[in-house]
Input
Amino acid sequence: MLGLIEKDLRLTLIKKQTIVIFLVMALAMGVSMNGAFLVAYLTMLAMIIGTGTISYDEYDNGLPFLMTLPFDRKTYVREKYLFSLITAIVAWFIGAVIFGIMDVVRNNGAGLSEIPAMIAIIPAIYIASAIIIPLQLKYGGEKSRIALSIIFGLVAVIAVGVGKVTENPLNPMADVISALQGLPGYAALIILLAVSAVATTISYLFSVKIMEKKEF
Output
């Protein structure tokens, strides 16, 4: 497992120029945007980079070679979820530090109290990993991006539809949404963590089945 993590880390660091550009953009946004957007932006980029290592593995028939090494397919799948989580946490921390420094400089630290609430960004964005990883394993990089665009498009349409339905105060869904919005921060975080854990577990089981059916 550690060897696979080191491999993915080295593959990620090959794109040093891209990472530097992302950090420069993050610094620029730290000056002009709010902290939540900055942290979410970096966390999302890190998640994309983390899951993108699957494409690196598949490049030039690299995956068949990897499967000859002394680890099983379940270990390979587990490592992808773990590496994606590690990159998301590291990026979240970097984003929080940048926001904290900028806030101290501009507002004497008045906005630092927002940082703990931003922890919810990690499980929220990690749910996207639960969608992307099995798609990447099943269809490869190009087709998975198309499938992901379709899925996110459907989610956006559903979200707009739910918003329209809940605008009616007589609709029972409006009471449910109102109750969820009224939850304290820690309760919302616990629910988000639970949803992320369930989504990741289901995704992992699908990913294992996909890898076990692959022929090299």
Observations:
- The helical segments are 2-14, 16-32, 35-58, 62-66, 73-107, 121-166, 172-181, 185-213.
- The mean pLDDT is 77.
- The CA atoms of residues 117 and 185 lie 7 Å apart.
- Residues 121-166 form the longest helix (46 residues).
